[in-house]
Design brief:
heterodimer, A: 393 residues, alpha+beta, 4-stranded mixed β-sheet, 11 strands, 34% helix, globular, B: 131 residues, alpha/beta, 4 strands, 33% helix, elongated
Chain lengths: 393, 131
């Protein structure tokens, strides 16, 4: 806020220690009085608008030089980047029919224009493929939806990371992992899509760590949290069908968790699994992750997905339940159906998972349909064999 | 003679080998390749600015508004500011506005009118905001 007189204090925003508060205010009092009474400067009376125009070509140098230049500029995320040359960016933009100067959104906090070209530059840096562009574009569009409360979560001390759930046939076309280790590193799609969004938030939105992004502890999920729902091994309708999409539609759904936990259910009959899910204390908003083996157990005992959710809701009826910051209490009510999603993902094993965000900020899950370019089939064919082949030993 | 010529040839070869450039006319080391790269930093539209409100000529007899956002420490800090200001300037009055809703401006909430009236009723505002 240019021109507004700001007086910093040493008091933590959540502090309840009166001695600290008194000491902090004592230290700031003279500055507060000066801010109220000292006459305005000319700049404060008539602040000048500063325009900025970044050069299109940022740098020329060797691979190492480019990486060090970008890192020093604060444009990286700590990992090596793929140099975004004209050719690489042009290739990335074959993943969309939108023109290079089409603006998908303006991103907070600086209102940076997320044009297709700027998105593509960051996507190249992240190591994404052109087949990832439709999802990255959908992700940027979703972030700009006020219902995500991206404006709250991206810069908060809470270090909330965007989580993207992918549904539809695109998962298999571009090898989005929805099975074993789906949330671990190792798959280009899961890794690069999330990473691209992280770079976009930083370089287009301007949310710089320690400057605008004031995450106290940080969150490794900010590198990437992208999960395909394991629709093939689920006995239930996938998430996007429950939201009114057709099974053959491709969708991306986002919310902002900052807690990821897993548990082993003590009992593996249907009720035991449901109790274990409830004991993880999902609040608004959450994603409960059920592995295919457990989904089949539910199905074999005739539990629908909704029945599982209803059981969890009933077990979580206390308004003080609900994980982070008493999310349910903040909303003034107990856990409700729209507060959490239940998705099937993961591989063989026994673990259940929970990704948890905060609620009470008028936020909700936001879903976007993924739009594909006309040359989609050719693009998919070009990259379909880019899969890991582990050496046997 | 023949042996002398062979030795001379070997010596000549050795000298040339030592002084020949390591880089040949064949492709240079890949690390030398120069990448011309585009900037990932986005443009922004200029934000229209306006000047801030005029300041108080003095604190005496003024009504100071204390605005507290939803953070846990905001109201305690506002109360402390009130206490300290009143100790220093016994003639001032204070008025607290506590915005309980998270991460929104007061004018976006149902309390918009109440907030507007409160702003008009005070001479200056000290806002406790933070995260």
């Amino acid at each position: 806020m240019p021109g507004v007189r700001v007086v910093g204090t040493t008091i933590a925003c959540e502090s309840t220690v009166e001695a600290d508060i008194e000491s902090g205010i004592d230290g700031a009092l003279n500055d507060i009085i000066a801010a109220l009474t000292k006459p305005l400067t000319q700049e404060e009376k008539s602040p000048q608008v500063k325009t900025e125009k970044a050069p299109r070509i940022a740098f020329k140098g060797t691979y190492q030089d480019v990486n060090q230049f970008f890192y020093r500029k604060g444009w990286g995320d700590g990992l090596p980047i793929v140099p975004p040359t004209e050719a690489a960016v042009a290739e990335m933009m074959t993943g969309t029919d939108l023109p290079a100067n089409h603006m998908v959104a303006k991103l907070i906090p600086r209102g940076g224009k997320a044009t297709v070209e700027k998105i593509a530059v960051n996507a190249v840096m992240a190591g994404a493929l052109p087949t990832h562009m439709p999802l990255i574009l959908a992700a940027v569009d979703a972030l700009a939806d006020p219902a995500t409360r991206f404006d709250t979560f991206e810069v908060s001390t809470g270090s909330w990371a965007p989580f993207f759930l992918i549904n539809g046939p695109i998962r298999n076309e571009i090898h989005i992992n929805s099975s074993s280790g789906a949330l671990s590193p190792g798959n280009i799609a899961n890794s690069a899509i999330g990473r691209a969004v992280g770079l976009i938030v930083k370089n287009i939105g301007g949310a710089r760590k320690g400057v605008e992004d004031m995450g106290t502890l940080g969150n490794p999920g900010k590198y990437s949290l992208v999960l395909g729902e394991n629709e093939e091994e689920s006995p239930w309708d996938p998430y996007h069908v429950g939201k009114g999409y057709k099974k053959e539609d491709n969708t991306l759904t986002v919310f902002f968790p900052n807690r990821y936990t897993m548990t082993v259910p003590p009992e593996t009959n249907a009720e035991g699994l449901a109790k274990s899910l409830a004991r993880m204390r999902p609040g608004a908003l959450s994603a409960l992750i059920v592995i295919p083996d457990h989904a089949k157990i539910f199905k074999s005992e005739s539990w629908t997905k909704q029945q599982v959710k209803d059981f969890v809701i009933k077990q979580s009826s206390s308004p003080t339940a609900g994980g982070i910051m008493g999310s349910n209490a903040r909303r003034g009510r107990g856990l409700q159906n729209e507060d959490f999603m239940l998705v099937v993902a993961g591989g063989p094993g026994v673990w259940q998972g929970l990704l948890q965000s905060a609620g009470g900020f008028k936020n909700s899950f936001v879903t976007r349909k993924i739009n594909l370019p006309k040359n989609w089939d050719k693009l998919v064919a070009k990259y379909k064999n880019l899969v890991p082949n582990y050496v046997r030993y | 003679m023949y042996r002398l010529l062979s030795v001379a040839a070997l010596v000549a070869f050795a000298i040339l080998a030592v002084h020949a450039p390591f880089e040949t006319a064949v492709a240079k080391d890949a690390s030398e390749y120069q990448y011309e790269v585009l900037s990932p930093w986005a443009e922004v539209d200029p934000i229209p600015l306006r000047g801030i409100s005029a300041r108080l000529n003095s604190m005496e007899g003024k009504k100071i508004g204390l605005f507290a956002n939803f953070k846990r420490s905001a109201v305690p800090q506002a109360n402390m500011v009130e206490k300290k200001l009143k100790t220093k300037f016994p003639t001032i009055q204070t008025s607290l506005f506590h915005l309980r809703e998270a991460n929104v401006t007061a004018t976006e909430t149902p309390e918009k009118d109440k907030f507007t009236e409160w702003v008009k009723s005070v001479d200056a505002v000290v806002a406790m905001v933070g995260d």
